[in-house]
Amino acid sequence: MKEIQKGIYRDGELIFTEAASDQKVYGENFIQENGREFRRWEASRSKIGAAVQNGVELGIKEDDEVLYLGAASGTTVSHVSDIVNQGSVFAVEYSETVARDLVEVAESRENIAPVIADARNPEEYEEVLKPVDVVFQDISQKDQAEILMKNCRKYLRDSGKAMIAIKAQSVSSSRRPEEVFDEIKEKLNDMFEIQQETLLDPYETDHLFLVMSPR
Ligand SMILES: C[S@@+](CC[C@H](N)C(=O)[O-])C[C@H]1O[C@@H](n2cnc3c(N)ncnc32)[C@H](O)[C@@H]1O
Questions:
Q1: Mean of the pLDDT values across residues 78-93?
Q2: What would the mean pLDDT of 144-173 be, rounded to a whole number?
Q3: Domain count within the chain
Q4: Percentage of the chain lying above the pLDDT 70 cut
Q5: What is the CATH number of the domain that holds 115?
């Protein structure tokens, strides 16, 4: 097992994080090596995992504070929680049904704070949130760029970074994905400098992943 980025490991074609809990979150395999336990990170089940497999350097540090928008049942949140083992993840999800699983994942870990709220209204969670080092957004909505920007304006440190997984189909099902990506990048360009970008094929079709820093 070789560490390829802070807190992310590779064994052959597969990637892993070091397990902060022995709870299985989505049926993933565990591997023991030299007294340590690693959880397989399935890139086809996680857009950040797919981005890592496609060469993106996340640059997330072990003591980072992360605001994660669109946490769903906590699949990817659990891997981010493994990476930031001395920091924390504020995991925002607005569907109470989906968030039940997220709350269960958070119960077996010390550094996940589930936030049941609408990410379109970042003031809804200002009492629980402090400034963060990373904002990641995986909300497949037409206004996903605006949601990210609103949250970054309120919570992202100047030295921090923003990441987004853009799903072309959610923005427009009739226009070409490239056209949609260009439009979203132009919006984001007002606030961010785009540092890395990659398509998420073959794990996700017509998804673009961006890593950005605030201007
Ligand atoms: C594509 S899924 C996220 C998958 C998750 N990031 C993972 O990798 O495990 C998008 C999630 O965003 C949530 N969502 C959509 N609009 C939202 C909003 N305005 N505020 C908070 N969550 C939202 C949906 O309920 C859904 O669970």
A1: 98
A2: 96
A3: 1
A4: 100
A5: 3.40.50.150
Structural contact between residues 93 and 125, judged by C-beta atoms closer than 8 angstroms: no
Q: What is the pLDDT at residue 22?
A: 92
Amino acid at position 173, single letter: S
**Is 74 in contact with 96 (CB distance < 8 Å)?**
no
CA–centroid distance, residue 5 to ligand 1 (Å): 26
The rounded distance, in Å, linking the Cα atoms of 19 and 101 is 18
Strand partners, 15: 10, 41
CA of 89 relative to ligand 1 center, distance in Å: 15
Pocket probe for ligand 1: among 66, 95, 146, the residue whose CB has the most ligand atoms within 8 Å is 95
Report how far residue 173's alpha carbon sits from residue 176's, in angstroms, rounded to the nearest whole number.
8
What is the reported pLDDT for 134?
Answer: 98
Q: Which residues sit with their C-beta closer than 6 Å to ligand 1?
A: 46-47, 70, 72, 75-76, 92-95, 98, 118-120, 138-141
The CA distance from 53 to 31, in Å, is 19
- Asked if 204 and 51 count as a contact pair (C-beta separation under 8 A), the reply is no
Q: Using DSSP, state whether 1 is helix, strand or coil.
A: coil
Q: Establish if 14 belongs to a structural domain.
A: no
